[in-house]
Amino acid sequence: xxxxxxxxxxxxxxxxxxxxxxxxxxxxxxxxxxxxxxxxxxxxxxxxxxxxxxxxxxxxxxxxxxxxxxxxxxxxxxxxxxxxxxxxxxxxxxxxxxxxxxxxxxxxxxxx
Length: 112
Fold this sequence. Notes:
Elements: H1 3-25, H2 31-46, H3 56-72
């Protein structure tokens, strides 16, 4: 089989299952387990199943980016949880268009 077909099969069978498990267990992964998954992904490249090396950090970042883009759509059921859209004061492009909540680090303690 040519390399491109092996890559498609590897994505369909292996990477999709890793992504499915990462979505559920992302916060519970130890650094040792992440290293094992990364070593497995490197072996996929070494044996010719993949054309480039993929890391678990890349997979998790891509999954989070896709989820955020989907939630930003107005017809998504989680869209109402997003903060309001911030006014366009400056024209600097940031990661998103939503207004972050303000936080005051001063603590006022009543001493009465």
